[in-house]
UniProtKB/TrEMBL annotation:
It comes from Rhodococcus tukisamuensis. Keywords: Transferase. The record marks Y241, Y284 as: Lowers pKa of active site Cys. Residues 160-287 form the GST C-terminal domain. GO terms for cellular component: cytoplasm. The active site is at C52, Y183. This is Putative glutathione S-transferase. Glutathione binds at W85. Signal peptide: none annotated. GO terms for molecular function: glutathione transferase activity.
């Protein structure tokens, strides 16, 4: 179950607009351990699903900052039932570190009567097997700030102090109208709600187009948290949101500034190498049965064009600032090439 679904597994409330439940476990893992969970190498496990855009943010940030050897990662499969994301990609369907078949078990270990969705990303305390947090916006910010002692040499500053107010402002607009906006289109239960969400989505994409026409990145001249948050929606736009969620005014490939911007990030180490288009498509088209009752996964679109030149370097900017690109992904975390270069 994700934050979009109800206890019955339905995603669309007939006659209603979609409203996301944003009540997450707000416990934080911090350098000073003020919530009882200090930053410690090897103590925690980041649980993700490559299909999920919210989890994809954490995968990218962890890669960019070089935290792979400090914070291990468990990967759920692309589909789930009404109860929970599951570890069906692992041998025996059990996470090799937490020794559980379902993420739900980590939530119930801490909160036996946990009433809300079992969501990714989540961070689990390995010694106790208990979930610490699933507050996805805060998770990535804390990886940038609270885990700084363990960043790789040359790690970028994704949340620079002097730009935080602007990053927060842009990120909030992007969340409201784009990240969550595509869901407000796709899960709308009445025509008026769908059309209002549709209009806000494309108005914001037009605003982003204007902003990015003259600057390479969203805030400042380097990659920041704001770019990570926009990218994970853009990369899913044509394979899923354009058709499945009826966000069909224009494809991403027809919005040339945003298409070039998205390809620029996709071709940057730490971004495209986290993307599994096959799992993304399987998740949306199989799990959302009230949107797609047949569960047929579309064969298209062709996605090999993500590797075409983008020309954004002509706008200047320094993707990693004074830092360097991340190392290649760990062999165990490499996405099969046939899953992201779909012809």
């Amino acid at each position: 179950m994700t934050e979009e679904s109800s206890s019955t597994g339905a995603y669309v409330g007939k006659g209603k607009e979609f409203t996301r439940d944003t009540r997450y476990i707000d416990t934080r893992i911090t350098a000073d351990g003020r919530d009882g969970y200090p930053v410690e190498p090897g103590r925690y496990r980041l649980i993700v699903a490559r299909a999920c855009p919210w989890a994809n943010r954490a995968i990218i940030v962890r890669r960019l900052l070089g935290l792979e050897d400090v914070l291990s990662m468990g990967v759920c499969g692309p589909t789930h039932d009404q109860r929970s994301w599951t570890f069906d990609l692992d041998p025996g369907g059990v996470d090799p570190v937490l020794k559980i078949p379902r993420l739900q078990e980590a939530f119930l270990a801490r909160f036996p009567d946990y009433p809300r969705g079992i969501t990714v990303p989540a961070i689990v305390d390995i010694p106790t097997g208990q979930v610490v947090t699933n507050d996805y916006p805060q998770i990535t910010l804390d990886l940038s700030t609270e885990w700084k002692q363990y960043h790789r040499e040359g790690a970028p500053d994704l949340y620079p102090t002097e730009l935080r107010a602007e990053i927060d402002e842009v990120a909030e607009l992007v969340f409201r109208d784009v990240n969550n906006g595509v869901y407000r289109c796709g899960f709308a239960g009445k025509q008026e709600a769908y059309e209002a969400a549709y209009d806000r989505l494309f108005a914001r994409l037009d605003w982003l187009t204007e902003r990015l026409a003259t600057q390479r990145f969203l805030v400042g001249d380097t990659i920041t948290e704001a770019d990570v948050r926009l990218f994970t929606t853009l990369v899913r736009f044509d394979p899923v949101y354009h058709g499945h969620f009826k966000c069909n005014r224009t494809k991403l490939t027809e919005m040339h500034v945003l298409w070039d911007y998205a390809r620029d990030l996709f071709q940057t180490p730490g971004f495209g190498d986290t993307i599994d288009f096959a799992q993304i498509k399987e998740h949306y088209y199989v799990v959302h049965t009230d949107v797609n009752p047949t569960q047929i996964v579309p064969k298209g679109p062709c996605l090999a064009n993500w590797l075409e030149p983008h020309g954004r370097e002509l706008l200047g900017g320094r993707p990693f600032g004074d830092g360097t690109p991340p190392h290649p992904p760990k062999p165990s975390e490499v996405v099969p090439v046939e899953h992201w270069a779909l012809g």
